[in-house]
Every structure is written in C-alpha cells, then in structure tokens.
Amino acid sequence: KFDFATNLTIEAWVRVPSPPSPIGPDRRTAVGQRHPDGGNGFALEFVPHFFIFELIGGALSSSTSVSPVRWTHLTGTYNGAFFRIYLNGRNSGDWGLAAPVPLPKTS
What we know:
The protein has strands at 2-3, 8-15, 28-34, 41-47, 50-55, 58-61, 71-78, 82-87, 90-96, 105-106. By secondary structure, it is mainly beta. A four-stranded antiparallel beta sheet has the order 2-7-8-9, with no helix packed on it. Strand 5 (50-55) and strand 6 form a beta hairpin.
C-alpha cells in the first residue's frame, strides 16, 4: 500500500543525455506514478531546459535553467501547503496553495 497523505518527497539523480529538440514537445519523465485514469499521480519531468514537479494536476517549474549532459540531483516536496522543487540542494521554486491538495491513497 502506498499512502502519502499530506506529505511527499520524491528525488532522483537525472542526466538529460542530449539537448532538447528545437521543434515539438520534448518531455521526459525521471520518476512518477499515475493512476490509470491519467488524472491522479506525481512526477518529476524534464521539459526543454527546466524540470517540473507535478502532483495531482498542479505543476511547478524550476526557476533555474538546466544544461543537458550534466547530472542533477532533483527533489520535489509537498508538505500540505507548499510545492517545492530543488536542484542540487538549492530551492528552485515554490508554490503556496490556498487549500491542501487531496492526495489519494493507492495500493
């Protein structure tokens, strides 16, 4: 059973192996879990030059641009009030919420 109630931290070491495509979307998932309905879940993803932390339909982008071909320690946290994204241990963005996100229980 996987139950993250109102707190969640996910992290990964990520290396984007090549520059992003100059045309079209180039979204790469580092780590994530999605419900089969596609709506509920979480993910750490790379879009050209930035990382994104997604949780239950909300998304926070890193404020720091990322160069490909470098290893980056990526962390996304949620504490019931704030989404935060960290790159190499430094806060790269936060987003306060007016109400807690209802996190599902999964098994």
